[in-house]
Amino acid sequence: MTTSARQLAALLAICAAVAAACGGDDMLSKAEYEDQVRTAYAEVQEAFARTNVPSLEELASRVEDAQEALRDAADELEDVRPPEDVVAEHADIVEGLRAYADDLDRLRNAAERGDERTIEDFNARIATNRSVEQIAEAAERMKFKGYDLGPIAEE
Fold it and tell me: Domain segments of the chain: what residues?
């Protein structure tokens, strides 16, 4: 093999490696994607289940844990390539999880201050929280496309 042929072969090998690293065929199947979402969201559910505590001091710590679980789930999901037919919905869920984690600062701060009125107000408005709506709407659109995402599409 000549020098230029070896250089061309090396260049092609490098291009193939770069293309593979950029996510060539690593798009998840529908079933794999559903499993990824259910697994990531299970941690979020567990964290929120632990926020049902009697003391506001404990609540602040548990809300912080829930924020971390939301951000971790968003990070996990951001690293997957969803099936092509749900790319937009997937992006909305990831964005919504992060935004809701940020929204919970208000609840955590209220718990730290012992501000029960703000906590009650926050809890009363969860159903109309824009971040929660964004997650729910994206999950609902996926549900109409035949995806079973488990609890994230039901809450």
Answer: 27-153
To the nearest whole percent, how much of the chain has pLDDT over 70?
Answer: 83
Which are the contacts of 39, defined by CB distance < 8 A and separation ≥ 6? none
Q: What share of the chain is helix, strand, coil (3-state, %, to 5)?
A: 80, 0, 20
Rg (CA), the chain: 21
Range 7-12 contact pairs with CB under 8 angstroms and sequence separation of 24 or more: none
**Those residues with Cβ within 8 angstroms of residue 153's Cβ, 6 or more apart along the chain or in another chain:** 136, 139, 140, 142, 143, 147
Amino acid symbol at 111:
A
Q: How far apart are CA 122 and CA 71, in angstroms?
A: 20
Band of the pLDDT at 22, cuts 50, 70, 90? very low
Which among 155, 27, 45, 21 is positioned nearest to 90, based on CA atoms? 27
* Cα→Cα distances 69→11, 35, 56, 65, 149, Å: 42, 17, 20, 6, 17
Q: Tell me what pLDDT residue 25 has.
A: 57
pTM metric for this prediction:
0.81
